[in-house]
Amino acid sequence: MGRGGSAQQTHKSGRAVYSYHQRGWIIANYSGRIASIANMKRQKFPSLEGRRKAPGVVDVRNRKAYFALPYNPNLRERARELRKAGNLCEVLLWKRLQNKKFKQYDFDRQKIIGNYIVDFFCGNCNVVVEIDGSSHDDKVEYDDERNAFLEGLGLTVIHIDAKDILNYFDDVMLMLENHPAFRVPL
């Protein structure tokens, strides 16, 4: 950034200029029109259109199916608390799943689906990953009811024992790598 608090970067195509000023990003597109950061989402940039993906990589979440899932807004604060508290097993697994590190899939942590909060949800292939620790020992009926609800929505539920994550983490990741729910359809 320059001394005046601004920087410029030319887009690959040479047709758009990004400028950062103290008030935020400003874009002068190839038609010369100035757009603010709010309008940036609406613009189409040539380098992003028609970009190629590696074979077998799912780059886009199925948004229509994702937003069609039932959602209870009253659980929002509880999900936030669970994300902040995070037990060790969840944090270890999350470090491998977040930011599309696992097969380029997009995962959500403590996702609200209906009246339930699931540990991890993959919107690319509609998979729920649940970590079963000591809190699940005396909730067999509740877990069965939740599984039936989630499977009724067309979701695949994968249960992983917390002890396996702590003791055999690489084997757990290998199992997830090879699980049929995470295979790309041909």
Task: Give the strand content.
Answer: 15-25%
Poorly predicted runs = 1-54
Based on DSSP secondary structure assignment, what is the total number of beta strands?
Answer: 8
**Could you report the average pLDDT, rounded to the nearest whole number?**
75
End-to-end separation: 46 Å
Summarize the main sheet.
4 strands, antiparallel
> Given the C-alpha coordinates, what overall shape results?
globular
Overall tally of domains:
2
Sequence of secondary-structure elements: EEEEHHHHEEEHEHH
SS-derived structural category: alpha+beta
> Architecture of the largest domain, according to CATH?
3-Layer(aba) Sandwich
Kindly identify the CATH topology of the largest domain.
Endonuclease, Chain A
**Strands in their spatial order, largest beta sheet:** 1-2-3-4
- State the share of residues found in helices, binned by percent: 25-40%
How much is the radius of gyration in Å? 21 Å
Assign the CATH superfamily of the largest domain.
VSR Endonuclease
Q: Briefly, what CATH class of the largest domain?
A: Alpha Beta
